[in-house]
Amino acid sequence: MLLIEHLHTGHGVAGEQLELSFEYRTKSRLRARLKSGEEVGLFLPRGTILRGGMKLAAADGRIVEVVAAPEELLEVRCADAFELARAAYHLGNRHVAVELGESWLRIQADHVLEDMLAGLGASVAPVTAPFEPEAGAYSHGHQHEGEGAKGARIHMMDGNY
């Protein structure tokens, strides 16, 4: 298994790609597969959030590009800026990760939130696209109960990698 413990900060060209959904790009400990099929273990500093286009430095010297995987999302549009801000407020009040566009919001697909937004008068449509929400509250790391400093835990992907 290829070990990745650091972000790549240089200008080198990536020779490998690691495609992950947003959920998996928020995990510091993860077992996944490169697009080539090779298994990798990510052991990044706690709180690291990977964004599409970022580069990782593998233990063997290879550079791996992070690719934001397409996901099932909901795109929210409103009649005017006030209504869009209102929809964003209600999503933020529920601590929902939101991607902001010039005239839309995107969230991960959720029928309860879809109903709430429709009830607010928003137009909600399913889209498949990479998800890059605002950092906000998600810029801080998370730990699982009982992990502490020694509790490195690797998240297993469910085969959709």
TrEMBL record:
GO terms for molecular function: nickel cation binding; unfolded protein binding. The keyword Transmembrane does not apply. Transmembrane segments: none annotated. Coiled coil: none annotated. One of its GO terms (cellular component) is cytoplasm. SMART domains: UreE_N. It is found in: Cytoplasm. The keyword Cytoplasm applies. CDD domains: UreE. Belongs to the UreE family. Involved in urease metallocenter assembly. Binds nickel. Probably functions as a nickel donor during metallocenter assembly. This is Urease accessory protein UreE. It comes from Pseudothauera rhizosphaerae. The gene is ureE.
